[in-house]
Amino acid sequence: MSNKKLYRGSLSTIILKLLGDNGRMYGYEITQKVKALTAGELQITEGALYPALHKLEAEGHLKVEFEQVNNRMRKYYALTEDGTKEVANKLSEMEQFIQTMQQLLNPKTGLA
Amino acid sequence: MSNKKLYRGSLSTIILKLLGDNGRMYGYEITQKVKALTAGELQITEGALYPALHKLEAEGHLKVEFEQVNNRMRKYYALTEDGTKEVANKLSEMEQFIQTMQQLLNPKTGLA
DNA sequence: CAATATACCTAAGATTTTTAGGTAATGCTA
DNA sequence: TAGCATTACCTAAAAATCTTAGGTATATTG
Predict the structure, then answer these.
(1) How far is CA A16 from CA A29, A49, B96, in A?
(2) Structural domain total, chain A
């Protein structure tokens, strides 16, 4: 993935959307899901993911449940009520962003 | 503009594309052009623009010409040969990014 | 003549990410 | 069964990019 830089700022949007779709997920699961959904195109690093999860939790968008699976701890995240609203916000911001970029980058024809 | 964060990483793409379309531009002109093209949605700050221009120049993507207009200096930027290739790269990266985000964020229907 | 617009710039701080680790259990395979 | 990959969590230093908040100077407009 050579266009890593472009993903800057979109991580929390991705996390929130996945949790909206899947109910609850744990960190490692999110990294695998993103890799699968994008056919390996986007690999979320753990150094980015965990701080982002903690921040979303601190902001009140996510809540946490611990669960013991195979003698190993899992930390499940799910949307709070507030988080559910935030998903919609983030998605419409992303939509707006994409529209603006298309206005800027292909005034008439296709992007390329 | 509440979705400022999403623009992180896309500034150099915007600059390169505008220079590709317009031949040559000076910094202030770029800020005004972006504001006009996006109906005020995206306002490039000078604190972001000038460092970005200097970096693109240092990387060999842009070349500079000074010009005196109305007793005031203008610094015109234009693409180098290398910069012309970079425009294509950046645009296809942006295209790929948008596709990936759409895969992730609207698996079936529209984005919203 | 003061404020706004034009036109360039930098530096400190904030945010987000990469890079590069650390810990520990489970599963697979040579 | 030793060793390596995978699963699963985490942090901290550094890099990258941006905002904020200045600075300088000329031209235009009310």
Answers:
(1) 14, 12, 21
(2) 1
